[in-house]
Each structure stands twice: as structure tokens, then as C-alpha cells.
């Protein structure tokens, strides 16, 4: 990879800031940061390190595409520029805005078991509330609607995990061939497996090898290396999850079942969650 990175200097053409030709649009808490950071060690990929929130936040969108472009890394024409903002996946107006910028853009979407994603989402929000000296609501009080004893679809963490509902909006505009679905549960345990599939989707030469990933037992996660650096994700990724009553867990798994079934039909893939 080091050799490849130095070869970056040998590209023909100009080093310019360009709008992304690939976006990780979500899903929040499914491993979007791991996916982006792992991809960044590929010699032909340059990433925007921070989440831009360009297409979902009015005050950013108003700044215009020129502003967005100038936030992007410098790339050569044959390189891939990737931005990731997980809020894009669930924000209604975003597909149309991205389509307006580039109809042929490639979209990366990472999914994870929807029930575990809800717990991860809750854990993060709770962590942030505690950091602001606010109290945390009980998981069961947010997830279950006490009036009807059913899973509460008004709870945003539940709504976000109804993947098929949000994906439908994207499929109305973009052909499925422009999308690639990453399995976040596999990325966690075997990053190379998922990253090689992304390389194929992006029509990149296969550069990732097993040497680029090593398991850090202190962190309990895979970290990345190339010949110059070794790096893990920040401690905000991979928090200890809140303990959940098995009965609530079962309610959630049953709730997501028909949506999972629909999702895997939509993406033409064998179901890997409870369907
Ligand atoms: P948890 O914090 O629930 O464990 P996102 O970046 O979209 O917010 O996703 C965060 C999730 O990425 C973490 O969820 C963690 O499980 C997952 N993840 C996948 N690979 C990881 C890695 N190598 N290091 C840290 N977290 C990783």
C-alpha cells in the first residue's frame, strides 16, 4: 500500500477537489465509520473525514454545491472520492438532491441486525445525554408503547431500523446496480471479506489484504494498518450495550420480521436476520 500511495504522485491529470462519486448514505450505528476508515487505506480512495450533512441540513444545502465540493479532499480523475453521512438514508428529501447532483453516483449502504442497531442507537443517545448531565430514559419505555403494548414506531431508533421503508425512497430514483449493500455484522468479524466486495463494486483493483486488518484484543475490534501506520477507531465506536430484557428483545425481533423479509426481497439477497 505504501508503494501504491507513493504512486499516487504518478497519476496523470490534475489534483482537484471534486464532488464525491460515491457516498455512504447509512445506516447509522451499523458500522459506517469503520467502513469509511477501512476504505480510506485503499490507495485509490480519498475520503471526507467529517460527516458533511450537506443534503439533509437546510443551512448546509443552501450553501450550494460549490461549497460542498470545496470541503472534499483533493483527488485525481481516476480516484474515488467518498463522503459519509448516515442521516442521508432516512431523510426524505436527500435521494432527490443527490440525484440532481449526480445520477450515476455509487451508493454504499451498510446494514446490521435491526434489533441490535436499535440498542446501539439507544446506547449512543443515552451516552450523549449523560455527557450533558441529562437523564436517560429506560430502553423499554422508549421501545414499547404502553397504551397498546406494541413496539413504538414513533421512536426514531425503531423507525431507522425499518430498512425497507427508507430504501424504497432510494430505489424510486436510483437503479439497484448503483447500490452496494455491506453486511455490518460480517464487517465486524471479517472486514477483508466485505471490503473486497466493495472494491469489486467500485471497479477498483483489489489492494486490500489480510495484513491491512488485525484484531486488537484490548479494543475487541479489528483495527487497520498499512506500512506506515496502525490505527483503531475511536472509543466512541463499540460501546458496551445496555442490557435488554429478553422479552423486549423478542418483541423487537418479531416486529422487524416482515420488514426484514421485504428488505431482502428488495435487494434480492437471502435473508440473514429473522425473516
Ligand atoms: P456499537 O457501538 O454498537 O458496538 P457507526 O460508525 O455507523 O456509528 O457504527 C458504529 C458501530 O460500528 C459500532 O457499534 C461497532 O459495532 C461497529 N464496528 C464495526 N467494525 C468496527 C471496528 N473495526 N471498530 C469499532 N467499531 C466497529
What does the model show?
It is a single chain. It is built from twelve helices and twelve strands. By secondary structure, the protein is an alpha/beta fold. The relative contact order is 0.16. A hairpin with a 4-residue loop joins β7 (144-145) and β8. The protein is globular and about 65 Å long. It has a five-stranded parallel beta sheet. Strands 10-11-12 form a three-stranded antiparallel beta sheet, with no helix packed on it. The structure holds adenosine-3'-5'-diphosphate. Adenosine-3'-5'-diphosphate is lined by residues 28-34, 86, 120, 187-188, 221-222, 233, 237-239.
Helix content: 25-40%
Instruction: Report the mean per-residue pLDDT as an integer.
Output: 95
Name the hetero compounds present.
Answer: adenosine-3'-5'-diphosphate
- Write the H/E string, N to C: HEEHEHHEEHEHHEEHHEHHEEEH
Principal-axes shape call: globular
- If you compute it from the alpha carbons, what radius of gyration comes out, rounded to the nearest whole angstrom? 19 Å
Helical segment tally?
12
Poorly predicted ranges (pLDDT <50, ≥5 residues)? none
The main pleated sheet reads as: 5 strands, parallel
Strand line-up in the sheet with most strands: 3-5-2-6-9
The chain-level structural class is: alpha/beta
Gap between N and C termini: 41 Å
Strand content: 15-25%
Please count the beta strands (DSSP E, at least 2 residues each).
12
Amino acid at each position: 500500500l505504501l508503494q501504491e500511495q507513493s504512486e499516487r504522485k504518478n497519476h496523470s491529470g490534475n489534483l482537484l477537489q471534486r464532488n464525491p462519486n460515491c457516498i455512504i448514505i447509512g445506516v447509522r450505528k451499523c458500522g459506517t465509520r469503520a467502513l469509511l476508515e477501512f476504505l480510506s487505506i485503499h490507495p485509490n480512495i480519498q475520503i471526507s473525514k467529517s460527516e458533511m450533512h450537506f443534503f439533509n441540513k437546510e443551512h448546509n444545502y443552501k450553501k450550494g454545491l460549490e461549497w460542498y465540493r470545496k470541503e472534499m479532499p483533493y483527488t485525481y480523475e481516476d480516484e474515488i472520492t467518498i463522503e459519509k453521512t448516515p442521516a442521508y438514508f432516512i431523510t426524505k428529501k436527500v435521494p432527490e438532491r443527490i440525484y440532481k447532483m449526480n445520477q450515476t453516483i455509487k451508493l454504499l449502504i451498510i446494514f446490521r441486525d435491526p434489533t441490535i442497531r436499535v440498542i446501539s442507537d439507544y446506547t449512543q443517545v443515552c451516552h450523549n445525554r449523560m455527557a450533558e448531565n441529562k437523564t436517560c430514559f429506560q430502553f423499554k419505555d422508549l421501545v414499547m408503547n404502553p397504551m397498546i403494548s406494541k413496539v413504538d414506531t414513533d421512536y426514531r431508533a425503531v423507525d431507522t431500523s425499518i430498512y425497507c421503508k427508507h430504501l424504497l425512497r432510494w430505489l424510486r430514483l436510483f437503479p439497484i446496480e448503483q447500490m452496494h449493500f455491506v453486511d455490518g455484522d460480517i464487517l465486524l468479524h471479517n472486514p477483508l471479506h466485505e471490503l473486497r466486495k466493495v472494491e469489486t463494486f467500485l471497479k477498483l483493483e483489489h489492494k486490500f489484504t489480510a495484513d491491512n486488518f488485525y484484531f486488537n484484543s484490548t479494543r475487541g475490534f479489528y483495527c487497520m494498518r498499512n506500512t506506515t501506520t496502525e490505527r483503531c477507531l475511536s472509543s466512541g465506536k463499540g460501546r458496551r450495550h445496555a442490557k435488554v430484557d429478553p422479552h423486549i428483545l423478542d418483541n423487537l425481533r418479531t416486529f422487524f420480521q416482515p420488514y426484514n423479509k421485504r428488505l431482502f426481497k428488495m435487494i434480492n439477497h437471502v435473508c440473514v436476520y429473522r425473516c
